[in-house]
């Protein structure tokens, strides 16, 4: 499976036979450019919540199945579990709800945390289930910040951690950079990759942090 980051919380997961795009954004809202139409073709299109930097499902090309909230789904051999959490640390009083998705493609489970605003409860962890890779917001302001993100990583115990929702060139929002999260995780400077490719048998024994370039 290939994992490609388009900026903010927008990712493409490319399996052998199935592709999923999560949290496509509106360019005018974020200041970021969407990828070219050929990169926006997917079998599944998912949004974690309705804010405009996460909910541009109409941008996704092809006959995609839309997933917009909690539940269990199966599409073309891809299993998806959506679990309801909150967008803030006050039980949704400030920013409402957010759905996290555990997506299994080619035997690898990828958890997209959307705009998570808090550490996870035991009940939420049980609903989510085992996780190989976590896509986690780290920029603070509207989501968990670097220290809380590191706590969530400890809760989930994934093999791979890919930070998202942090400050990059062109983004309109006042977020922290990824360096604060890397410091919290005890890792030095990491050379960003344009995509991350992984198979089940190549997952590391110990948690590894991967930083992606926006493409």
Automatic annotation (TrEMBL):
Residues of the signal peptide: none
Gene3D superfamilies from the UniProt entry: Ribonuclease Z/Hydroxyacylglutathione hydrolase-like
Protein name in UniProt: Lactamase
Organism field: Candidatus Daviesbacteria bacterium RIFCSPHIGHO2_01_FULL_36_37
């Amino acid at each position: 499976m290939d994992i490609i980051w388009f900026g903010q919380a927008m990712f493409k997961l490319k399996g052998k036979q199935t592709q999923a795009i999560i949290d496509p954004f509106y360019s005018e809202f974020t200041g970021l450019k969407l990828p070219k139409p050929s990169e926006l073709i997917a079998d599944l299109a998912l949004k974690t919540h309705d804010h405009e930097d996460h909910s541009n499902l109409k941008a996704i090309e092809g006959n995609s199945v839309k997933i917009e909230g909690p539940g269990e789904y199966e599409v073309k051999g891809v299993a998806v579990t959506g679990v309801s959490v909150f967008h803030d640390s006050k039980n949704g009083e400030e920013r409402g709800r957010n759905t996290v998705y555990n997506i299994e493609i080619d035997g690898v489970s990828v958890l997209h945390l959307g705009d998570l605003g808090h550490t996870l409860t035991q009940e939420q962890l049980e609903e989510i289930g085992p996780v190989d890779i976590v896509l986690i917001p780290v920029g603070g302001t509207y989501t968990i910040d670097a220290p809380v993100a590191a706590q969530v990583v400890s809760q989930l115990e994934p093999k791979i951690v890919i930070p998202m929702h942090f400050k990059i060139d062109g983004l309109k929002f006042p977020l922290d950079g990824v360096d604060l999260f890397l410091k919290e995780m005890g890792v030095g400077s990491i050379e960003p990759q344009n995509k991350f490719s992984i198979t089940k048998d190549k997952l590391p024994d110990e948690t590894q942090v991967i930083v992606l370039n926006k493409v």
